[in-house]
Amino acid sequence: MTTQYFADFSLALINRTGAYYVCRDIVQRLPQFFQGIRYWRLFLRSEPPTLIRKLLGRAMLLELCHLRVTESIPRSNGARWRDVPTLFFDPLYVLRTHLRANDVVLCHDIGPVSHPELFDTQTTRLYREAYQRIVAGKPGMVFVSEASRSAFVARFGDDFRFLKVIPLYVRSDLAAGEEKEPAGIQQPFLLTVAGLEKRKNHGRIIAAFEASGLRDRGYSYVFCGPRGNSAQAVQSLAEATSGVRAFGYLSDAELRWLYRRATGFVLPSLLEGFGLPALEAAQYGLISVVSWEGAQKEAVGDGGILVDPTSVSAIANGIVRLVELGEAERNEKLLNLRRHAQSLSQQQFLKRWAELLGANA
Q1: What pTM was computed for the model?
Q2: Beta strand residue intervals within 225-348, DSSP E
């Protein structure tokens, strides 16, 4: 008999980044492992409609941030299922529940506790409390990269039911589909696609583009992504820097247009759980400038241009090198990246999750 879990998909109420789509795939493609799905306090057969989802998300955040009560939210939708283990798709959602050793927690990174300067104080506080519960409960832990697991073990030790790495996957159909040109693009250009968050390092990237001299050679720099904790500062800097074009959220068709015409991809992040963007960019034939350590280095290896993300001059030198790559070196890097991406298929990703869920209840 297939072991069943409850899936805590509270993340879906407030998150529409890559983490959401990965977790949605697990729920939708492996339904045999799930008795039910919980969205904070509600057990639902499917995700709530957009308006209800947003209202539930706001209520959940209000409860997490401001209501200091001892009541726990229900683990299941009935006494019959009281002992069914739960798969939590983010450490945050172990708060206000009774975490058990037979539960499983997915961790993309421990950024809010390892790099508190990149997050607001409320987020840092909540994740610290969540990890305290995790250390006490000792559930099974799943990570998206060896870098994330190593960071976790260095801070919290290895006394857990298991510490498993299941890498993310690169979509095979990423570059397929129609395209639409965004307004006001000057070619040639370098591209960044990432949320406007401190950890994405937008400020240094913009400063590096200005210092690189590439604008005087006819290049522009384009970036886009949803709003985050540095949106206002980054957009103000972009407006004050000649040759920089800033977009917010763009459609898939607009993103395809950008990816298909960019000279290269630039994202030397200060913190990443996996480093998927560089592998996705490679599916469009783009080499990336990324951070020389952590998950990004693990993801691209010799397939990218690795730089110190804290040094504007290092990033500037990296993007100049990106523009000046010879055809032979570019092709070799792309070959390495695409080989790695092929090993990170959705089929393999789901197979590893199925093996874990079937063996570790």
Answers
A1: 0.89
A2: 244-246, 264-267, 288-291, 305-307
